[in-house]
Amino acid sequence: MREYCGETFSKLDRAGEGLSSLLFEDCLFTGCRLEGALVENCQFSGCRFEGCKITAPKFRGTQMLSCDFADCALSGVDWSALLDERKRGMGFLPFDSLRGCSLRHCVFFGLDLKGFQFAGADLSGSFFDGCKLEEASFAGSRLQGTSFAQNDLRGADFRGATEYFFSLEGNRVKNAKFSLPEAVNLLAALGVVIEDL
């Protein structure tokens, strides 16, 4: 396995290609493209990604831990596949922050995301299943078509979030914060008919 430590990669373009058997530790990636790339048997630890486009990557045997993302387009990423199964749900995450990122059609399965800041993110079409999301912030986020199933959302903040529609059944929502008019969608998900007078 080839190792890179503390290096900077600028405008690396692996769209439709691949990365194989590489270890990146504390590296900086700026303006890089991994669209449809096969990333096989690689490890990313403590890396920072800025202005990168990572779309529908295929991860095989790849792990990511404690990476930071800023102003990236991250679409179709299965974040749960980037953690060793023993670490999933135990406070370990492939990312420490996702500031200013678009996170469309991403998969978050069984992750411990307590207190995580998704505020202002576009999470359209993403899946949160079996996640610990207590005190997480989705404030001002776009959640069109986003699925929430079997999550702990106690104390989560959805104020100002738009286009969400999910069932309260199966999700723990005590003390979660919602705002009008979007909160009406939660009643509609329960089959309640709402009419204007």
Task: Describe the overall structure.
With 197 residues, the protein is mainly β. It has two domains: 1-101, 3 Solenoid (Pectate Lyase C-like); 103-190, Pectate Lyase C-like. 3% of the residues lie in helices and 28% in strands. It has one helix spanning 184-189; strands at 2-5, 8-10, 18-20, 22-25, 28-30, 38-40, 43-45, 48-50, 53-55, 58-60, 63-65, 67-70, 73-75, 95-99, 107-109, 127-129, 147-149. The strands form five sheets. The chain has a five-stranded parallel β-sheet with strand order 2-5-8-12-14, with no helix packed on it. A four-stranded parallel β-sheet has the order 1-4-7-11, with no helix packed on it. A three-stranded parallel β-sheet has the order 3-6-10, with no helix packed on it. The longest helix is centred in the C-terminal third of the chain and has 6 residues, at 184-189. It is elongated. The model has no long low-confidence stretch (mean pLDDT 91).
Features:
2 domains, Pectate Lyase C-like, mainly beta, 3% helix, 197 residues, five-stranded parallel sheet
Strand order of the largest sheet: 2-5-8-12-14
Which stretches are low in confidence, meaning pLDDT under 50 for 5 or more residues running? none
Estimate the mean pLDDT confidence: 91
Shape: elongated
Largest sheet geometry? 5 strands, parallel
